[in-house]
Amino acid sequence: MSTSNEWIVAGSGSMTGRAPRAIRLRVPVCCDVTSQLNTGAVQVKDIAELTGTTVRTIRYYHQVGLLAVPPVRDGRRDYDLSHVARVGRVRWLADSGLPLAQISAALSVARDPTGGDQRDAVLTDLRATLDLLGERIEGLTAQRDRLVTLVATVEGGESLSPMPPRAAAFYDALAEAASDDTTRTGVRRERDFMELAYLRREVPPEAELLFAALDDQALTASLDAFSESLTSELSDEDVERIAAANVARMRDRFGERLPEVTQAIDTHAVRRLMDLFLATGNDRERRLGRAVLTKLLATIEEARGNDSH
Hints:
The chain is mostly helical. The protein is built from 13 helices and 4 strands.
């Protein structure tokens, strides 16, 4: 009956917040690896197997100075237990998140309760790595939360979009109700812009109130505005009239919350959003965008003035 020796290589729980997990590798005694370790007759492939790594990795450790190159005997490198232990320690620190460039210094720190410059430097590296892992964990947690939201969105039969669900549903409704390709193209173009703006986090939070579900009358008015702004040549008077109508629709959608919104909204954020619109729009859109911005800022200032009296 074959028996085996059990070698334990430290794993890492750094990314999960759990205690490190030991990896147990069983090596058959028939290979006589343990006795060969005592005589320095183990080959690189045996070291790789014992430590759960690869021959290529061990050779890389040689290259960067993390593992001493053993003497050559009979045309091959012979490793001993010290090499196994060293590779195990390197893997343990690497799996804990420490960059390879810092591992050599970390392993060279002797046990010294009084500290010292070298120990302080290693502690700085370890704490910096810990902070970095904390940032990665926060990022992964946020990523997981977004995926949970995406799953819920698809399960609810809604389209995937970086916009809030209400905004996505708003543009879905407009596109579905559009009666011609030109209007649908205009809706799609505005939706693409809003998705970009949300991705850049340049949409004021108060803007979500604009995407409330549309009744038939509001839906028709919005589509008529799209159609007019896309299918005809616009004089300066047309631009002013369409811009005024757009801002009026915004006021209607804010409804009774208009005073609250105008007090809370950051006009610098409104300008940044419009700067993005002007940078990505065509000549017609830029003319309309400038006119809308002027009238919208005037509306905000007027509402703030009325609210202060």
